[in-house]
Write a structure and sequence with these properties.
155 residues, DPS_DNA-bd_CS, mainly alpha, 5 helices, Ferritin, ferric iron binding
């Protein structure tokens, strides 16, 4: 059936594309955070192991919310490593970094997602897409807070 939610097709496609980038960034950071959760070592092990778990669980829930919004806009959500690799701005880590390098890398990832979400705001705002704007506000809030919390762990 044709979609008639008050947002024209071109706007829906543009918003969905932005959300696809956000989805790819979110999933990539989820994988990286989960990897770091498994492989962190050192005197801050317990703290970081727990913090990383909290953050990757939140990212896993976010992936579903973002993908469902893309579908509600009438587009298909990307869902493969190949598609995510083309869309994401987050670089994979080589090897197993030190705990402090993990923290700094995750700060960059959290900030990248906040920037990706912020970049979609004008398109969603032009379309009066309050649902997507609300989702983007929630994502920016979470990622800016996570970046701050991680940043506070390093000098």
């Amino acid at each position: 059936m044709k979609i008639n939610i008050g947002i024209n097709e071109d706007q829906r496609k543009a918003i969905a594309h932005g959300l696809s980038v956000l989805l790819a960034d979110t999933y990539t950071l989820y994988l990286k955070t989960h990897n770091y959760h498994w492989n962190v070592t050192g005197p801050m092990f317990q703290t970081l192991h727990t913090l990383f778990e909290t953050q990757y669980n939140e990212l896993a829930l976010a992936v579903d919310e973002i993908a469902e919004r893309i579908r509600a806009l009438g587009e298909f959500a990307p869902g493969s490593y190949k598609e995510y690799a083309k869309l994401t701005s987050i670089k994979e880590a080589d090897g197993i970094p030190t705990a402090e390098e993990m923290i700094k890398d995750l700060v960059k990832g959290q900030e990248a997602i906040a920037k990706t979400a912020r970049s979609i705001v004008p398109t969603a705002d032009d379309a009066s897409d309050e649902v997507t704007l609300d989702l983007l506000t929630q994502r920016m809030t979470v990622h800016e807070k996570n970046a701050w919390m991680l940043r506070s762990l390093v000098a």
